Amino acid sequence: MKGIILGIESSCDDTSAAVIEDGFLLANKIANQQVHREFGGVVPELASRAHQQNIIPVVESALYEAGKKPGDIDAIAYTRGPGLMGALLVGSSFAKGLSLALDVPLIDVNHLQAHILSVFLRRKDEEKAMPQFPFLCLLVSGGHTQLVIMKDHLSMEIIGQTIDDAAGEAFDKCAKIMGLPYPGGPLIDKLAAEGNPNAYNFARAALKGLDFSFSGLKTSFLYFLRDRVREDEHFTEHHKADLCASVQHAIIDSLTRKLVKAARETGISEIAIAGGVSANSGLRNAVYKLGKQKNWQVYIPEISYATDNAAMIAITGYFKFLEGSFSSQHVTPVARFDQLD
């Protein structure tokens, strides 16, 4: 079944629009919000206002690049949640209004499911291997860390998740402790390339099963640095690369240990990672290395599709479009994953 899907993403601080035709990506546009840097994190009210300013130009830009007009659209997919409620309301309200104006179906999308399905993104004439079902996905982002079995495009089973902080949150909080500017995760990745990952040892949670915990690692890092700075006020600056490499190593070790355990217990060798933290070079390299050791088929989205983007919303919308899974104007955004039905 053919279809042209407009995807809209506004869950946090990136306003994005994308166009997919018959399963192939034609355009993916993102407007970033630099205003949050001076506050050391996303300010929800400022994010909502920026989305209002950006959403129409971003959608127009995506349609222009795709060579499509509003009348060509067959359905509109938007992020329902999880995310910041104000930001979600801007995207969902725009999507609903446009669907009424164009008289086309509306498709609500689970942001986390969309991250996983980003591994299916491709452009026309692009040769790219696709996961076979079932596949196991390590979903790692600033707000969530989960192990998920994908049984088909629209059927997912969570077999492990964090009981406290997400991996991305651990990256950002450790970066903040070191005085690195927001967003800190990418800066840790960059500095880690220059440091020794075994310079310092930070706590890993010893949880049974497939769940994760990063609060202990974060606390271990905080107390370690506090004690060293008392002895030498310039300790952080003099050892920043080693600190970044060591904390990154600890987080990646925690993630990959559980991934190996999950693959062994499920017998699944089709492995994917997704979410914003899948852009981390250390994690990508570690999973590719494990793939060679364990004889896995590994799938990781391009970095431009790893962070929040509308292309992943559009491809999820496309698969729901094929199933005729549409939503009504009465469906409301939800801020938390456990509120999604």
The number of E-state strands comes to 10
Number of helices: 11
Largest sheet: 5 strands, mixed
Q: Helix-strand pattern, N to C?
A: EEEHEHEHEEEHHHHHEHEHH
Strand residue content: 15-25%
Q: Segments where pLDDT lies below 50 for 5+ residues?
A: none
What value does the Rg take, in angstroms? 20 Å
Amino- and carboxy-terminal Cα gap: 26 Å
* Helix vs. strand class: alpha/beta
CATH topology of the largest domain: Nucleotidyltransferase, domain 5
Outline:
The chain has helices at 44-66, 85-102, 111-117, 167-177, 184-192, 215-231, 235-238, 240-266, 281-294, 303-306, 310-323, and strands at 4-9, 14-21, 24-32, 75-81, 106-110, 135-140, 145-152, 155-161, 270-274, 297-299. By secondary structure, the chain is an alpha/beta fold.
Describe the structure.
The protein contains eleven helices and ten strands. With 341 residues, the protein is of the alpha/beta class. The strands form two sheets. It has a five-stranded mixed beta sheet with strand order 3-2-1-4-5, sandwiched between helices. Strands 8-7-6-9-10 form a five-stranded mixed beta sheet, with helices on both faces. Helix 3 (111-117) crosses helix 11 and helix 4 crosses helix 5. The chain is globular and about 65 Å long. The model has no long low-confidence stretch (mean pLDDT 94).
